[in-house]
Amino acid sequence: MQCRHSIKYLDHPTELLSARKNRESPLRQTAKVIFVLTILISTGCTSSQGFNRITMHEALHLDSHSTSETPPVLPGSTRPSPPVRLGIFFVKHQVPDTPSIRKVEWLSADRDQLLRELAPLRDEQLLADMFVLTDVRLRGNDIKEIRQTGVRFGADLVLIVDAVAAVDRYNNRFAWLYPTIIGAYLAPGTESDVLTMATGDLWAIHSDWHAPIQIVETRSKAVGAAAFLDDNAPLHDAKRLVIQTLGNHIAEQLRLLK
Predict the structure, then answer these.
(1) How far is CA 138 from CA 26, 55, 112, 192, in A?
(2) What is the DSSP letter of 141?
(3) Which end of the chain is more exposed for a tag (fewer CB within 10 A), N or C?
(4) Rounded CA gap, 222 and 191, in Å?
(5) CA–CA separation, 188 vs 226, rounded Å?
């Protein structure tokens, strides 16, 4: 009895390589892809770079405020008498985001939050009314135009609110786990640290009274795996905190009008 065996011959080297690749399990191929990706991620931002406060100050025009022709409030200035009508203008930046600075987008929820922070001043009879100045032509450094808009809205005081943010994204000691399959998804090896800087500038409409500009800073941080960590969450939290802090500072400034 003769036994016959079916033998398949690979006549070309490329066929042999193709056969070997086909024998690789999908899990192994996935592991290779994850390994390459995590190496790229873990080496992309290895250490904290800090924040460029000089650039942030320039974006807020703080240098120009310090050399402004309009002096801060003086003993002889005619300050507004409460209760006053307060108009609030939120500055919009027309500059693109960069690695060192992020513009702050003012949403309706942010405006409502500041109004809530200042709401107790109504009960203290310091504010008769407050509202947002919504003239799209206004610019943050055009004080004269903002005050004129305040006149049209019937304001006694205008508050100019401006803010910028910066993100410092870097890896921590857990980043060495990124090359592993589980670590790539679960290791909290990346941190997103956010600094938000805001200013509040009070100007009288019917006199030369101008309160000292209020400058506040807040920080927020998020930690997670690099592939899933989103900078938007700490940016949102830092903006919420800076509005709360600025509202408290402005409220204290307005209480000095008593």
Answers:
(1) 59, 23, 20, 33
(2) T
(3) N
(4) 6
(5) 8
- The reply to whether omega before 80 is within 30° of 0 (cis) is no
Dump pLDDT digits (tens) for 123-156. Answer: 999 999 999 998 766 766 678 888 888 889 999 9
**pLDDT of 255 strictly over 60:** yes
Between CA 37 and CA 32 the distance in angstroms is 9
Q: What is the DSSP letter of 130?
A: E
Task: Report CA 244 to chain centroid distance, whole Å.
Answer: 15
Of the ranges 10-19, 34-43, 86-95, the best mean pLDDT one:
86-95
Look at 75 and 84; give whichever has higher pLDDT: 84
Q: Choose the CATH number for 52-172+188-255 among 2.40.30.30, 3.50.50.60, 3.10.20.310, 3.30.160.150.
A: 3.30.160.150
Q: Is 150 left (phi over 0), alpha (psi -120 to 50) or beta?
A: alpha
Structure-token pair, residue 215: 């400058």
